[in-house]
């Protein structure tokens, strides 16, 4: 009996790749030079697809995949995947939410603390011998009692808030609408939240609805003593406005795990001591990636056994 054929857009990790190979007939798209041509030649019998939030799904591929029934993606974001286009073809889509909430929230607080306590300059100060030469390292800033604004109080945002409470921070948030299930203060406008906040943490989705939502006006409202922390998507921030604000003292600092054109972070940021940069590793721990990979497998397996994915996206 022939096995179900799936199209794997990219490598995931050794465990997931091996499990896919054992359970399915896998077409490895990342190995192909002419991807559209390969899909046109081999795509007719493909019933499932595996991808990631980074690699996404090219809508043009769908014409060559008439039998596609399900897409299982590693990652919580889906701004690189046209979910309505999938649903229009009766293709189910599942992502990997919840299993990465704590890990990304940890990263947000790590970035916030690294920025406020000047951990990267302090590390260099020790390594280059400045401390040994009896030079004085400049004072950093405390987070205790400071105002933390969270943009997007979903499950990751709430996990950030719980951690920040442990530091004695005051917490408010901005969503499209008030969340009556939480006790944190609600700011109906993003500019109002930025004016109030000492630290503005972004945990909102990417996509057209939030594109460049953090504009020049928002950055200037956050101000020369404020810090922007982004663990959501690079597209949420107007990167050119961010560079200008940092360069001219209109924003105090930024701690960024994501960028508009990954992996190409703006070179202007590299020489700035008031910036912390990470290569989109918010969920990149062994434990979390193992859970995410397993959910990719479980979504696929549950669909082919029961006709539905475990974590469907309705958008």
Layout of strands and helices, then pairs:
Blueprint: E1 5-8, H1 14-23, E2 25-28, H2 35-42, E3 46-52, E4 70-74, H3 83-88, E5 92-94, H4 101-116, H5 119-127, E6 147-151, H6 155-165, E7 170-174, E8 185-186, H7 190-196, E9 199-202, H8 216-222, E10 227-230, H9 239-247, E11 253-256, E12 275-277, H10 286-306
Question: What is the alpha-carbon Rg in Å?
Answer: 22 Å
The CATH class label of the largest domain is Alpha Beta
What fraction of the residues are assigned to beta strands by DSSP?
15-25%
Topology-level CATH name of the largest domain: Rossmann fold
> CA-to-CA gap between the ends?
36 Å
Count of spatially separate domains: 2
What would CATH call the architecture of the largest domain? 3-Layer(aba) Sandwich
CATH homologous superfamily annotation of the largest domain = NAD(P)-binding Rossmann-like Domain
Overall geometry: elongated
Notes on the structure:
The chain has two domains: 5-97 and 287-306, NAD(P)-binding Rossmann-like Domain (Rossmann fold, 3-Layer(aba) Sandwich), CATH 3.40.50.720; 101-277, Rossmann fold. Helices cover 33% and strands 16% of the residues. It contains ten helices and twelve strands. It has helices at residues 14-23, 35-42, 83-88, 101-116, 119-127, 155-165, 190-196, 216-222, 239-247, 286-306; strands spanning 5-8, 25-28, 46-52, 70-74, 92-94, 147-151, 170-174, 185-186, 199-202, 227-230, 253-256, 275-277. The strands form two sheets. A seven-stranded parallel sheet has the order 8-7-6-9-10-11-12, with helices on both faces. The protein has a five-stranded parallel sheet with strand order 2-1-3-4-5. Helix 1 (14-23) runs parallel beside helix 10 (286-306) and helix 7 (190-196) packs parallel to helix 8. The two termini are 36 Å apart. The mean pLDDT is 96.
């Amino acid at each position: 009996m022939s096995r179900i054929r799936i199209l794997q857009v990219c490598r995931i990790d050794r465990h997931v790749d091996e499990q896919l190979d054992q359970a399915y007939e896998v077409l490895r798209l990342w190995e192909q030079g002419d991807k559209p041509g390969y899909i046109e030649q081999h795509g007719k019998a493909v019933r499932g697809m595996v991808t990631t939030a980074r690699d996404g799904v090219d809508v043009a591929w769908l014409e060559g995949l008439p039998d596609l029934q399900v897409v299982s993606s590693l990652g919580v974001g889906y701004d690189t995947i046209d979910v309505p286009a999938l649903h229009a073809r009766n293709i189910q889509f599942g992502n990997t939410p919840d299993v990465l909430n704590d890990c990304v929230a940890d990263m947000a607080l790590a970035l916030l603390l690294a920025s406020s306590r000047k951990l990267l300059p302090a590390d260099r100060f020790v390594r280059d011998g400045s401390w040994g030469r009896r030079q004085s390292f400049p004072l950093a800033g405390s987070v205790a009692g400071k105002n933390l604004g969270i943009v997007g109080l979903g499950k990751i945002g709430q996990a950030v808030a719980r951690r920040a409470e442990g530091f004695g921070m005051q917490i408010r948030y901005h969503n499209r609408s008030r969340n009556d299930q939480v006790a944190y203060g609600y700011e109906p406008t993003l500019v109002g939240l930025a004016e109030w906040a000492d630290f503005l943490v972004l945990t909102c989705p990417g996509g057209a609805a939030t594109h460049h939502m953090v504009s020049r006006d928002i950055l200037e409202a956050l101000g020369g003593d404020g810090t922007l922390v982004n663990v959501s998507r690079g597209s949420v921030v107007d990167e050119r406005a961010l560079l200008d604000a940092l360069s001219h003292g209109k924003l105090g600092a930024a701690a960024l795990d994501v960028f508009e054109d990954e992996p190409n972070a703006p070179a202007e940021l590299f020489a700035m001591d008031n910036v912390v940069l990470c290569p989109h590793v918010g969920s990149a721990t062994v434990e979390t990636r193992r859970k995410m990979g397993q959910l990719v497998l479980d979504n696929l397996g549950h669909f082919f056994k029961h006709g539905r994915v475990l974590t469907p996206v309705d958008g």
